[in-house]
């Protein structure tokens, strides 16, 4: 599950949804502005699924939830918090992965992956940050799938770690670094873009441990694993 979970988490839209009754109680009758996801309003009187359908960046997630027959579960009383993979995140999976996962014979696997992204309770980023502070730097979140996500802060970035130690942040940061280096070489070095191969590795083939000997997160080691590979091909030989 680890590789699929990490890929799904490349771009997270962390949205807290709840049943209409729970949200109404929390609001205490006061009018509050509806939060938005992908530019679309999320309504307190709608379920997770209804709000996801309204989101323009969670179309693949809606299809997956439907195929896994989790619609009724997520329309239940809740509340639930969904760390919702966006269409962009699904798009970064290896070609054919989503088509394979939604096949009827892979329903159990798909259900496990999706419910690993759901935790009981209504948690937004502030609530999770509060738990992290109370926990001395980390917070344990139990997923509906029965797994554990560890929440930590990397500066102002909320980082989720699965039970096998995979990060939801290193790979995208590695890719951003690789793109930044390539853009700099093109703009300032005069190197033609087709000659540059830039790739971010994240935690693939790590060069340092992500945890210290006592099991705590090692931000220095994690930063070292935000590695990139930049290969610049030799320019063509001048024509005599």
What is shown here, in short?
The chain is an alpha+beta fold. 37% of the residues lie in helices and 20% in strands.
Please report which band the strand proportion falls in: under 5%, 5-15%, 15-25%, 25-35%, 35-45% or over 45%: 15-25%
Instruction: Give me the number of helical elements.
Output: 11
Q: What is the level-2 CATH architecture name of the largest domain? A: Roll
Structural Rg: 21 Å
Give unreliable regions as ranges: 1-29
The fold-level CATH name of the largest domain is: FAS1 domain
Average pLDDT taken over every residue:
75
Strand order of the largest sheet: 1-4-5
Number of domains: 2
Report the count of strand segments. Answer: 10
Summary keywords:
single chain; alpha+beta; FAS1 domain; three-stranded antiparallel β-sheet
Give your account of this protein's structure:
With 240 residues, the protein is of the alpha+beta class. The protein has 2 domains: 2-161, FAS1 domain (Roll), CATH 2.30.180.10; 170-232, no CATH class. 37% of the residues lie in helices and 20% in strands. It has 11 helices and 10 strands. The strands form 4 sheets. Strands 1-4-5 form a 3-stranded antiparallel sheet. β7 and β8 (157-161) form a beta hairpin.
Topology:
Elements: H1 2-8, E1 12-17, H2 20-27, E2 36-37, E3 40-41, H3 48-54, H4 59-67, H5 71-74, E4 80-85, H6 87-91, H7 97-101, H8 107-115, E5 118-120, H9 125-134, E6 139-142, E7 148-154, E8 157-161, H10 170-188, E9 196-202, H11 219-224, E10 227-232
Antiparallel strand pairs: 1-4, 2-3, 4-5, 6-7, 7-8, 9-10
């Amino acid at each position: 599950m680890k590789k699929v979970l990490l890929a799904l988490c490349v771009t997270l839209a962390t949205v807290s949804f709840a049943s209409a009754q729970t949200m109404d109680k929390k609001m205490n009758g006061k009018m509050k502005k509806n939060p938005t996801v992908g530019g679309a309003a999320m309504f307190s009187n709608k379920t997770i699924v209804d709000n996801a359908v309204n989101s323009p960046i969670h179309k693949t997630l809606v299809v997956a939830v439907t195929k896994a027959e989790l619609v009724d579960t997520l329309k239940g009383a809740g509340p639930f918090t969904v760390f919702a993979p966006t269409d962009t995140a699904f798009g970064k999976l290896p070609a054919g992965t989503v088509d394979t996962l939604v096949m009827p014979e892979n329903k159990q696997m798909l259900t496990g992956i999706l419910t690993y992204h759901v935790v009981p309770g209504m948690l937004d980023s502030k609530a999770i940050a509060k738990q992290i502070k109370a926990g001395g730097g980390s917070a344990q979140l139990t997923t509906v799938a029965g797994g554990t996500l560890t929440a930590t802060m990397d500066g102002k970035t909320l980082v989720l770690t699965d039970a096998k130690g995979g990060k939801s942040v290193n790979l995208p940061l590695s890719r951003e670094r690789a793109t930044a280096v390539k853009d700099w070489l093109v703009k300032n070095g005069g190197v033609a873009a087709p000659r540059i191969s830039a790739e971010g590795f994240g935690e693939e083939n790590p060069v340092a441990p992500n945890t210290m000997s006592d099991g705590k997160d090692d931000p220095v080691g994690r930063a070292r694993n935000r590695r990139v590979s930049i290969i610049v091909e030799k320019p063509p030989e001048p024509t005599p």
